Amino acid sequence: MKKYFITVLAILSLGQIALMPNAFAQNPRVTIPDFADLVERASPAVVNIRTTEKVMTQQAQGGIPGMPEDQAEFFRRFFGIPMPGVPNAPKQAQPNPGKPQEADRGVGSGFIIESNGLILTNAHVVEGATTIYVTLTDKREFKAKLLGLDKRTDVAVVKIEARDLPKLPLGDSSKVRVGEWVLAIGSPFGLENTVTAGIVSAKSRDTGDYLPFIQTDVAVNPGNSGGPLLNTAGQAIGINSQIFSRSGGYMGISFAIPIDEAMRVADQLRTNGKMTRGRIGVALGEMTKEVAESLGLGKPRGAYVRNVEPNGPAAAGGIEAGDVILSFNGRELSKSTDLPRVVGETKPGTTATVQVWRKGATRDLSVTVADTDSAQAATKKPDAPAANNNSVNAFGVAVTDLSDAKKKELNIKGGVEVTGLGDGPLAKAGVRPGDVIIRIADADITGVKQFETLVKGLDANKAVPVFIRRADSTLVIPVRPK
Questions:
Q1: Is residue 312 a contact partner of residue 281, using CB atoms and an 8 Å limit?
Q2: Measured between alpha carbons, how far is 396 from 437 in angstroms, rounded to an integer?
Q3: I need a labelling partner for 86 at 20 to 30 A (CA). Which of 32, 98, 136, 224 fits?
Q4: Choosing from 109, 173, 201, 225, which is the catalytic residue?
């Protein structure tokens, strides 16, 4: 009996061993790739970008403004630098006081896409720079020329005078798969040629009007901006552009501009020096399940038109507020954020067929796409006083006086309400129409005239705290006037 049991056990064991290859075939082991060879090939094409700007030097003064006394005393004793506020302390002379001097502005990354020195990076890395310095991995440094930048997509193209440079091959971002391994190479916190790895966490992540970002868990920090996101074939599939962070550092979520979108922008920048986009003049709202059902669409789809610009292309083509744009020139729209991208890619002057959903039925309309810049310029009326006492200023906002009812509702004594936002510092800081500016630094805001006078007198080189009232909350936002 015992012998029989052992024989049966042996047969069962052999059967399990025979089945093991099939089990492994159905569930293959995933191994971590060796990135060393890939990094060795790709790194020479990744560059460090350092920018400078012209600043006015201060007149000779004693001490170090803003430094605590104990630190100032340390520098005074060991380096001969006087403490602030010490009587008869020798003043430290500045070179050419009162004249503009070159000062470091920021550090970022980029990568070479053509061997003649054409480099791709982020717009925010080079925007506003007086001089752009590019350092290669062999420590050669070049002054770069900015060929163009596009703030909406955060793409910029710069050029250095060099030949036979290593370049990165470009991949196809449309073929990126969630879960695949990716690498980032750049200069986080100014540390050149730093490599980090991770996986693609999501595709087509909406964080802006014109770009469906690639989301990854690759460690990306300040200074990585503009560097490449690479696949395991060593191809650039994106430009590292943004991080999601409450601390300013890496928190497990980063975003890259898909290389296909970036190159489409880069081609225009290198040719025209700017990005030309189409526009039709509509304001969009979120298409929720409740809205879709109420309109008879069944499921959420299309772009819901919240408002139509008077005398704009959409209005001329017959689009009305309350319409749902289902397709644009044959391209179906699954959500509202698809429309700005599709329209933006359309050449101005093109007459597009727009299918809209209105009153329970579809209808086709013809809309002639306008150029973003020319259309915006056409709507401006220079030197015309605003009817409701609105104004635009160094903060890039239009404001109006508060009504007594509004003051009572918010339980405040004064302030000005934001009625419009341009491309200015407050818009970039997240201020919205309807927000109320109640204080700038130590000055309470009493009305539009006082607000305008105060803003005009601000130093453009210094950030000031702006106090914003939003519903029942007060926000403090540091802002540097443009």
A1: yes
A2: 13
A3: 98
A4: 225
Length of the chain, in residues:
482
Please say if 70 is a catalytic residue: no
204 as an active site residue: the answer is: no
pLDDT at 17: 45
Q: Which fold has domain 45-86+96-159?
A: Thrombin, subunit H (2.40.10)
Domains 173-272 and 278-373 share a fold: no
Nearest to 261 by CA among 157, 174, 360: 174
Domain ranges of the chain: 45-86+96-159, 173-272, 278-373, 397-479
Helix, coil or strand: residue 12: helix
Residue of 51, 223, 150 lying closest to 423 (CA atoms):
150
Flag the least confident range among 5-9, 360-364, 450-454.
5-9
Domain 173-272: give its CATH code.
2.40.10.10
User: In a 3-state reduction of DSSP, which class is residue 39?
Assistant: helix
Confirm if 159 and 140 have CB atoms less than 8 A apart: no
- The rounded Cα 413 to chain-centroid distance in angstroms is 36
Asked if 115 and 166 count as a contact pair (C-beta separation under 8 A), the reply is yes
Q: Would you give the distance in Å from CA 347 to the centre of its chain?
A: 24
For the stretch 168-202, what's the b/e string if a residue is b when 16 or more beta carbons lie within 10 angstroms of its beta carbon? bebbebeebeeeebbbbbbbbeeebebbbbbebbe
- Of the candidates 109, 124, 327, 338, the residue annotated as catalytic is 124
**117-126: per-residue pLDDT in tens?**
999 999 999 9
Catalytic residue among 150, 154, 217, 435: 154
Q: Catalytic residue at 225? A: yes
* pLDDT, tens only, 222-280: 889 999 999 999 999 999 998 876 666 677 889 999 999 999 999 999 988 888 889 99
Its pTM stands at 0.61
Fold classified for 397-479: Pdz3 Domain (2.30.42)
Q: Output phi, psi for 199, to 5 deg.
A: -130, 165
